[in-house]
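Lab channel / #folding
Pinned by the channel admin:
"Please post every new chain as: sequence first, then the structure tokens as a reply. Keep commentary short and put observations after the output so the thread stays searchable."

First post following the new format, from NK:
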Amino acid sequence: MALPCTSQFWLIVLRFLAGFMVWFTIAAVNLFLVGVTLYSFSLAGMLGDNGFAEVGACVQRTILSLQHTILPEHMLWAPTLSDHSTGMV
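Reply from TO:
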């Protein structure tokens, strides 16, 4: 028995496995989103003591220290009501 040509093969596969492909895609996307969420919470240090929490804390300390060494407190821009009314800073 000869193998069916490629187009007929895919028509048969899609006929019998279309539902599985759809549900597999939905499950895979949901698992990916749960993984990204857990990774983000872990990086923020909200899931306990782990290596990712240390990286997140280190990045936060670095950003805060650079913010005050590069731009002193009086040079940080903060919008005020006068900025919007006159168009000048």
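NK: Residues 43-69 form one domain.
TO: also worth noting, Residues 35 and 68 are 35 Å apart (CA to CA).
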